[in-house]
Amino acid sequence: MPRIRVEVDGETYEDDVEPRLLLVHYLRERLGKVGTPVGCDTTNCGACTVLLDGLSAKSCSVLAVQADGRSVTTVEGLSLDGAGDHPLQRAFHREHALQCGYCTPGMIIASLDLLRDNPDPSEAEVREGLEGNLCRCTGYQNIVRAVRGAAAEMRTREVAP
Amino acid sequence: MIPPTFEYLRPESLGEALRMLPDAGEDAKVLAGGQSLMPLLRLRLAYPDTLVDLDRVAALREIRDDGDALVVGATATHHQVMNDPLVRRFAPLVAAATATVADPAVRHRGTFGGSLAHADPAGDLPAVALALDAVMLARSASGGDREIPARDFFVDWMTTALEPDELLTGVRLPKAGPGWGFHYEKFHRTAQAWAIVGVACAVRRVQGAVEDVRIGLTNMGSVPVRASAVEERLGGNALSDGALREASELAAEDTAPPADLHGSAEYRSHLARVLTRRALGAATAR
Fold this sequence. Notes:
Chain A: This is (2Fe-2S)-binding protein. Chain A: Pfam families: Fer2, Fer2_2. The complex is a heterodimer of chains A (161) and B (286). Chain A has helices spanning 23-30, 87-94, 104-117, 123-129, 141-157; strands at residues 3-8, 11-16, 49-52, 55-58, 71-73. Chain A is of the alpha+beta class and 161 residues long. In chain A, strand 1 and strand 2 (11-16) form a beta hairpin. Chain A is globular, with a radius of gyration of 15 Å. With 286 residues, chain B is α+β, with helices and mostly antiparallel strands. Chain B folds into three domains: 7-48, no CATH class; 63-172, 2-Layer Sandwich (Uridine Diphospho-n-acetylenolpyruvylglucosamine Reductase, domain 3), CATH 3.30.465; 180-283, 2-Layer Sandwich (Enolase-like, domain 1).
């Protein structure tokens, strides 16, 4: 079995993994990082989105061995500085940008990815940026509002992920 | 679902990858970004014995200037391609079409060469490669280097002219010169879905006449196809709205579009005509 070394939310892990183990299953079942859910299992819904070396990736479509030597950020790693919730997490709460919450971790990671490239996205740009993330209950109005609200806060405070 | 079991090989160089392929045999698959292959594994639609992961073969990611052409490395990601200054300047059709592929997370991992070697007729990039007369650069340990023109590369549904021990190493794209206009027109119902039909077109105008026109159709057959009848009708003629409209009516000629839940063959033929007119209009608007 291949041995992998991967940094997840700031901590380094070394594990022997079966080649077919998906990154999302590694995160949830081996590391207990259950903040990243499995959604559609077909690369459509984006619920399992994490940052892989800083870029968003659907962790159901990446093998754990492919993360060897790389760094992963999940939604659980967003407030490492101890300063409480990330502005995106607060904005999703404030704007009622979720009902069941299943898509929320992926939405927040995909939003983070979008805001890195574009700190002040228009409504259309938020919708484009989140096109790989599906929400089946709240709808997108409040999600878009939350992302733009968080962006405004992050621009004034220079918050790092 | 959990993918089936397979052996996993991770070569560190192109030479090592080429040496591994003959031993891995016909039931091996090359893993690039995995954004098409991983869903197939999870749905248990593919059962490869071995995956040869190209992730560590850094040389295959390069995009370089090659005189009158660009060479895009096979594992350059979509994200890399659509943001690359050389691609944006010299192959704007590739940049524009790549930006319509799937969604940002998939584009971070999916690769240019992977999309072509996967040869899904509903994929956007095969029709673009065909419209641009791209040349596929293949290499094997036994046969050395081989150049395959796009029109010979796509053999059948998800089947290319690559041999089992052969690797697509890159794609040569002719540089766009002055007078060329481009457009990729994609029709799909939801943001990240495959094209029901797509039209890639490249038009060169000289003094109000269409000097050269190339049109590649996505999802109008088991392989990407050129709309040859439209090209012949328009080429050498004066450019006008009427000429574009009339020529576009020929877009579905000699095609065999699939019928599925997204649309009948007849509907796809209709779309091909409408989208070709739109694509030609956009490519000649500037």
